Amino acid sequence: MSYTGVLELSAVRRQSKSIVSSCYYEGALKLTRPVYLEEDVPTVYLIHVGGGYVDGDTYLTDLSVEAGAELAVTTQSATKVYKTPKNPVVQQTNLKVGKGSVLEYFPDSLIAYEGARFIQETNVRMEEEAVFFYSDIITPGWAEDGSLFRYDWIRSKLKVYKNDKLVLFDHLLLKPDDQLNGIMQMEGYTHVGTFLIFHNQADIGFLDGLYEVMEDIQEDVCFGLSSLPKGGVILRLLARSTWMIEKMITHAHGWARHQLLAKDVVRWRKY
To answer: How far is CA 72 from CA 27, 40, 68, 107, 196, in A?
Structure first.
């Protein structure tokens, strides 16, 4: 299969420091050289050089964090999906998190414009004692008449395997109609956010603590927390702006890093 963009990257542990051991990219996908916002953990920024996703684009990203290594991944800017009159855009992401390794994967928001159709498939394979933090934000793009929800549909599938056993299958389908922002769907909100944590100590006690932290933030946002099998928590958010969801996820991420990794907050954002 021919892809619009391909990106492959591996991180390994060398003595007391994690490094990017190999990387490859072609087409519309590139990445920056690693920067060390933390002394021993590389952070890389993924780049789309075309300015946005268009009709029929296909993308493949493979990230691998080997045993004992740590890696932080984000993007240079939001992912913009424009009108797809013939074929939807397809984005396939495969993440491997080795034994005792840590992967923090926090792309900027997905913005779907009028007439956009988008398929996102993310497959995560974790080994024993692996740690995985992940966020996803979906927002409606600008339409000529100023209305929201003018994209055709967005389908996002997230599968997480632990020791080759499926422990999470999250399937989110947003297909705008007159009821999308009604009761039991978006309930008047316009933006959707997800923050996922997999860690052996992310148990019910951790979930209760995170809930108290999130509840203390008095903002126009609706959120829910669920416990996941094998040590995990998923936070789902509804809001009316991207920055609000980013604020909530950043707050939850900082607290989780402190509680689970004994680390301080790291500012990844570019602005």
So the answer is: 23, 11, 14, 10, 15
Alpha carbon separation from 86 to 15, 41, 89, 117, 254 (Å, rounded) = 51, 42, 10, 9, 42
Unique residue bearing structure tokens 């050289």: 33
Structure tokens at 139: 């927002």
Q: Are residues 206 and 198 in contact, defined by beta-carbon separation less than 8 angstroms?
A: no
Distance, in Å, from the CA atom of 252 to the CA atom of 235, rounded to the nearest integer, reads 9
CA distances to 110, 154, 181, 253 from 176, rounded to whole Å, are 16, 9, 9, 30
Measured CA to CA, the distance from residue 44 to residue 135 in angstroms comes to: 16
pLDDT along the chain (271 residues), means of 10: 93 94 96 92 94 94 98 94 96 98 96 94 97 95 71 94 94 75 63 95 95 84 90 93 92 95 80 50
Helix (H, G, I), strand (E, B), or coil: what is residue 211?
helix
User: Amino acid letter at 77?
Assistant: S
Contact 236, 193 (CB under 8 A): yes
Alpha-carbon dihedral angle through residues 238, 243, 246, 252, given to the nearest 10 degrees = -80
The answer to whether 106 and 168 have CB atoms below 8 angstroms apart is no
DSSP 8-state class, residue 39: T
Distances (CA, A) of 271 to 27, 70, 109: 27, 24, 14
The dihedral built from the CA positions of residue 252, 258, 261 and 263, taken in this order, carries a sign that is positive
Report the distance separating Cα 164 and Cα 160, nearest Å: 9
Is residue 164 classed as helix, strand or coil in its secondary structure? coil
